Amino acid sequence: MKRIQLISLLIVLGLVACTQPLPEPTKEVTQVRTETVPVQPSPEPEKPENPTEEAQPEPTFLPTEEPKPIETAKPVWPSEPKVIAEGLSWPWELVFLPDGGILLTERPGNLLLIRNGEERIPIKGVAHIGEGGLLGLALHPEFEQNAWLYLYVTYELPGQVLNRVERYVFRDDQLSERFVIVDEISGSSIHDGGRIKFGPDGKLYITTGDAGNPDIAQNLESLNGKILRLNDDGSIPDDNPFGSSVWSTGHRNAQGLAWDSQGRLWSTEHGPSGSETGNDEVNLIEPGKNYGWPLLRGMQTQEGYTAPVIESGRNDTWAPSGAVIVDDVLYFAGLRGAAVYRVPVDGMSMDTFEVLYKNEFGRIRNVVVSPEGQLWIMTSNGAGVDQVIALPLP
């Protein structure tokens, strides 16, 4: 009898609660779905008309928690794909702030801050031309002390498209004290490179493309078609191989940089396109080496040139972009390949190469590891439809 009375009381209380007005939604954060939302692949326009003048839809974000230290060296993968942010427009790079916030770049020229809500910070002077725009983003290794933030930017002068790396102070959610690290990297609607990362040696590494001019990759007087290495103030390190900012040469359009546990630098690079598509590469980068473009492709060899460790062959196209290494396993994003690729770096070969999430999320621009050890991807499907997604891995 007491059990029946208790159930009746709970039913009455539930009916009363249903008549109460719902609280107003908060304005600070817009909730997004956390289940898997497959994205249908759509072609990425090479040169949208007036891209910087388009009204960009407001992004929506899942509120983020303060990063928690993990007790194991093994990544803590989510049980299923989880949408972190959506409503984005061609996101390119993402970094995690020490206070738990997130910064990411959108190619049309916005730096997005996600912290208990979102804020779009327009970057002045960005020219979103085809593959160019606001690309790479990196925090200084001593960011908590100096607040230095670095951006790779495409811009225009009369009759010219150029790229440069800029340094800012980022404090109180504001950018100030703009300082140019390196300038006058030739730009184009294609092959702008754009990845910037600090290595374990504390130096800033920068990938540059051939800007549609293949021969320039073999010209040591040019910054294009190279991987550059600079001090944090833009000066040239004493141990650079050519006495300039150039670290390695002969690159078509490298877009991924990652270091393994031995401090070795790996890079992902786009091979030829059009009728000669294929031969996308993973390279082990060493100072002063020439990786052959445009003289050699794929596994072709010649004295004085370095072949890739693995490549896609002529019958497959990865269109590789951002890369990260977890437990000495390389993960990298595929644009045209529309997949995440995985291969161990020790004894790297196509025998241990894996294709994950093929065609599930469309074009994938970048992969990063969160402070909790999760793998996050950034899609590149178009204005207002892109996402950041945390992925489980086998």
If you had to describe this structure to a student in words, what would you say it looks like?
The structure is a single chain. With 394 residues, the protein is mainly beta. It has a domain at 88-318: 6 Propeller (Neuraminidase). It is 5% helix and 36% strand. It is built from 2 helices and 25 strands. It has helices at residues 2-18, 143-146, and strands at 60-61, 82-88, 91-96, 102-106, 110-114, 118-122, 134-139, 148-157, 160-171, 174-186, 196-198, 204-207, 227-230, 246-248, 254-259, 265-269, 281-285, 310-311, 320-326, 329-334, 339-344, 354-356, 364-369, 375-379, 386-391. Strands 1-2-25-24-23 form a 5-stranded antiparallel beta sheet, with no helix packed on it. Strands 3-4-5-6 form a 4-stranded antiparallel beta sheet, with no helix packed on it. Strand 15 (254-259) and strand 16 (265-269) form a beta hairpin. The longest helix has 17 residues, at 2-18. The chain is globular. Residues 1-56 and 61-73 have low confidence and may be disordered.
Features:
394 residues, single chain, Neuraminidase, disordered N terminus, 4-stranded antiparallel β-sheet, mainly beta, 2 helices
Give a summary of the structure in a few sentences.
The protein has 2 helices and 25 strands. It starts with a helix and ends with a strand.
Fold topology:
Layout: H1 2-18, E1 60-61, E2 82-88, E3 91-96, E4 102-106, E5 110-114, E6 118-122, E7 134-139, H2 143-146, E8 148-157, E9 160-171, E10 174-186, E11 196-198, E12 204-207, E13 227-230, E14 246-248, E15 254-259, E16 265-269, E17 281-285, E18 310-311, E19 320-326, E20 329-334, E21 339-344, E22 354-356, E23 364-369, E24 375-379, E25 386-391
Antiparallel strand pairs: 1-2, 2-25, 3-4, 4-5, 5-6, 7-8, 8-9, 9-10, 11-12, 12-13, 13-14, 15-16, 16-17, 17-18, 19-20, 20-21, 21-22, 23-24, 24-25
